[in-house]
Amino acid sequence: MARMNKSLPSAITCLVLGVAISITLIYSLLILLYSWMVEDNIFNRLVAAEADFIEQSYQQSGTLPQPRSGFVTLHRNWQDMPQELIDARKRKQDRIEFDLNDGSTVHIHVLQLEGIDYVLMAKVDDFEVSKEYLPNLLGWLALLALAGAALVSIIAFVIGRRLTRPIKKLADQVSCLPTESNGATFANNYPDNEIRVLANAVETSFFNLQDALQREINFTRDVSHEIRTPISILKNLLDSRSHSQQLTPSDYQQAQRAIFELEKVTHTLLALARNESKQKSELDMTQLVENTLLEHFELNNSEKGQKLSLQLSLQEGIHLHANRNLTQILLNNIISNIVQYATGSDVEIRLTSTSISFINHTTTPVPVQPEAAGVKAQLSTGIGQGLNLIERICAVNHWQMETHSSPTVPLNSEHSSSKETTSAFKLTVHFNPT
Fold first, then answer.
1. Which DSSP symbol is given to 62?
2. Would you call 160 exposed, middle or buried from its count of C-beta atoms within 10 A (0-12, 13-18, 19+)?
3. At 278, phi and psi to the nearest 5?
């Protein structure tokens, strides 16, 4: 697996830790601001209470009493007030708290008695607790923030690992996917939430990519083999007739046969290589088989094809859900193989709702696993891809191909004076394999 600069659990832990520390700092700052506001309001209310007392006493007795609190002093106008306080007051008329040059803090309250301004000034620096306890408070807040951050880090790490475990598992599994698909799925192993949706998307993309790659590999391999024989026939034909400049009927038939093989192979391989081969529709299989037999070139135009006697047993009303193009190509290829390798004249074709089978006789020994790629009969001029292509077409349609060769039996050929041995070769395509 590729090395990551930062894992998801670490990212989640850092994110949650950053949020927790930010909230802690903001909350601590709000607490400090609140404590300062409470303390200032207490001093303001004490000075206001002294002002009410002085005003009430003056109204009752006509004399100006002294403040009751020792830290509060009464001043007539602003004459004997500190100059820095007067200057600050001029800059902001509604200001009531001032920090003097000697480090003291005062709160003022202005009251009017018979049109004369009097100023109550309270020196509160000896009673302020916020400044005194601020260093200890900051220490405790920092310790509390560190403890909270440590606890949040542990919780975030545990939750982050738990939340990202499916994603990490998916990342590990995707990075270790084999280069060739073995058909195993992994999306259903994840919880039924967004992770499974992601896993399904990755799984589908991987299988589609592997399927496209496999089609490309098969196409390259098949093209390099299958078109070699008909091209060789055409080249030899042209080389042998380059001087005479005239084709005999036999030459014309060979060329026609080679061109037909090229067309058939090209059509088959391109159909298998395209992704459109997976598109399916409703097919009338009975009608498709009949049309294929009527339109097949070799069956109706070659000497061997015209000698064959077809025994048809086609059940009516067989409808299948499959790819029409591939099914047409499958039937054409099977019939072409029968025309090429059948020895006897009788060919039996049976169509039922579950399968279609082709039975013919041949004197050529049938190899073991004839559907395997590269396996061919002794007298075959090809390279052993014919039945393999048919099997792959069946796989695309989710069908199953089965071949069977019965024990050899003696056969008296009509065109030979000696007895030959033949075997009955049966190819069956199951539409609904179990």
1. S
2. buried
3. -90, -5
> Is residue 184 a part of any domain in this protein?
no
Chain centroid to Cα 248, Å, comes to 61
Q: Which domain holds residue 359?
A: 280-430
pLDDT digit string, tens, across residues 331-380 = 988 888 888 878 778 899 999 999 999 998 877 666 666 655 544 555 55
Q: Pinpoint the alpha helices (H) of 176-302.
A: 194-226, 228-240, 249-273, 285-295, 297-301
Closest CA to 89 of 61, 51, 117: 117
- pTM of the shown model: 0.46
Distance CA(74)–CA(97), nearest Å, equals: 16
In a domain, 82, yes or no: yes
Q: Is residue 200 part of a domain?
A: no
d(CA 282, CA 304): 34
C-alpha span between 24 and 27 (Å, rounded) = 5
d(CA 41, CA 44): 5
Number of domain units in the chain: 2
| CATH at 302 | 3.30.565.10
* Tokens found for residue 432: 């609904």
Residue 113 three-state SS: strand
Cβ neighbors of 94 (< 8 A, separation 6 or more) are none
- Residue type at 352 in one-letter notation: T
83-137 pLDDT per residue, tens: 888 888 888 888 888 888 887 888 888 888 877 888 888 888 777 777 777 777 7
> Which domain-ending residue is among 131, 153, 171?
131
276 token code pair: 């459109």
Residues 434, 340: Cα–Cα separation, whole Å: 32
246 Cβ partners below 8 Å, 6+ apart?
none
